[in-house]
Write a structure and sequence with these properties.
- Chain A: This is Spore maturation protein.
- The complex is a heterodimer of chains A (177) and B (197).
- Chain A is mainly α and 177 residues long.
- In chain A, 82% of the residues lie in helices and 0% in strands.
- Chain A is globular, with a radius of gyration of 21 Å.
- Chain B is built from 9 helices and no strands.
- Chains A and B meet through helix 1, helix 2, helix 5, helix 6 and helix 7 of A and helix 1, helix 2, helix 6, helix 7 and helix 8 of B.
């Protein structure tokens, strides 16, 4: 674990150093290339704005109106009926839609049940093991102007469900209830 | 499908607010959501400019082609439509490495670049190609070595072993990434089978 942490800490500076060294050795006009590539970053960031505004407004309306909470209350008994831990089901559902909301829920679950409880560990694993599908989709496809997404959303959501189920099974196997 | 989900989220919220008496919150949500989106996008400029600048040096120096070449055996199978030495491969591999180490800041610019290259390969159409869907599926499930944010939350709440979920997270994300690849393959198989009929 420590080795991995050291690698994460060193990776960015070493990557920067290596690219600059290699570019200089290959006689690339490093600074000019950097500026040229960097310019592209500005237009990409700006082009994402409308996609993200649309998505986040819609999601926050759904959340702030109380519809999200209401839906969760409805789903909880259903989840309990098939043996899933009811406390964590809302997190699993929100994880796909909103990264901020999911992070808030994870923090709340860890604070309420304790980080070393079954719920705390499960919430930690769910939070860490998947990305916010809708956000990734919006940013990546938005940045390059893809309008017809094909099966991307379906595949992403199914992968999220799988990730939740796998997290649940693994926590059961490793730590027990 | 995205159009429907997008419209439904807002519509259900607005209708719900009518009965729930939360119109005030909905009003605030509109402006808060829009503001948050712009803040995120503008905030991304710094990271995007830096990494795309750096990656341009790597591309000019031929590093990306090298990287693509190095990971050829594995990545080629995942993206059979991408020519092995194409810069898209280099960006895809860089994105995967950055994601693994939890470097989301570096991963996003490389992922966007990868998408851009994949779009070029797809004749600049505005439809997602097979490779794009695969790449997206892998990114949404994402293999994580260190879930840094979660560990820091666990530390805040005095976990006796904040890092004990590293193993479970790694296994869960690895299995779900493999699963995502299979789900993606299944949908591709369904699409092509439908096309032949």
């Amino acid at each position: 674990m420590e080795i991995v942490q050291i690698i994460s800490l060193w990776l960015i500076p070493l990557t920067i150093g290596f690219i600059l060294l290699y570019g200089t050795w290959k006689k690339i006009p490093t600074y000019e290339s950097f500026v040229e590539g960097g310019k592209e970053g500005i237009s990409i960031a700006v082009s994402i704005i409308p996609y993200l505004v649309g998505m986040l407004v819609s999601i926050s309306i759904f959340r702030e109106s109380g519809a999200l909470d209401y839906m969760m209350r409805f789903i909880k008994p259903l989840a309990e009926a098939i043996g899933l831990p009811a406390e964590v089901v809302p997190l699993a559902m929100v994880r796909t839609i909103s990264g901020t909301a999911a992070l808030g829920m994870t923090t709340d679950l860890i604070a309420t049940y304790g980080p070393d409880s079954f719920v705390g560990r499960l919430a930690s694993t769910i939070q860490g093991s998947t990305e916010t599908t809708l956000y990734v989709l919006t940013v990546y496809f938005g940045a390059v102007g893809i309008r017809k997404m094909g099966d991307a959303l379906k595949v992403g959501i199914l992968a999220d469900i799988l990730s939740f189920v796998v997290s649940f099974i693994i926590i059961l196997l490793v730590f027990g209830r | 499908m995205v159009n429907l989900i997008w419209a439904m989220l807002a519509l259900v919220g607005i209708v719900f607010a009518m009965f729930n008496g939360t119109m005030n919150e909905v009003n605030e949500a509109v402006f808060k959501g829009a503001k948050e989106a712009v803040t995120i996008s503008i905030g991304m400029i710094s990271i995007l400019v830096f990494w795309l600048g750096l990656m341009r040096i790597a591309e000019h120096a031929g590093l990306l082609t090298k990287l693509a070449h190095l990971c050829k055996p594995l990545v080629r199978r995942l993206f059979p439509e991408v020519p092995a030495d194409h810069p898209a491969m280099g960006y895809i591999v860089s994105n995967m490495i950055a994601n693994m180490f939890g470097l989301g800041n570096a991963a996003t610019p490389m992922g966007i670049k990868a998408m851009e290259e994949l779009k070029k390969l797809n004749g600049n159409r505005d439809t997602a190609s097979r490779s794009m869907v695969t790449f997206l599926a892998m990114n949404t499930s994402g293999i994580t070595l260190i879930p840094a944010t979660v560990i820091s939350i666990r530390m805040t709440y005095e976990s006796s072993a904040p890092g004990e979920i590293i193993g479970t997270t790694l296994v869960a994300s690895a299995i779900s990434t493999i699963g995502a690849i299979f789900i993606d393959r299944y949908y591709y198989w369904r699409r092509t089978r439908g096309g032949k009929r």
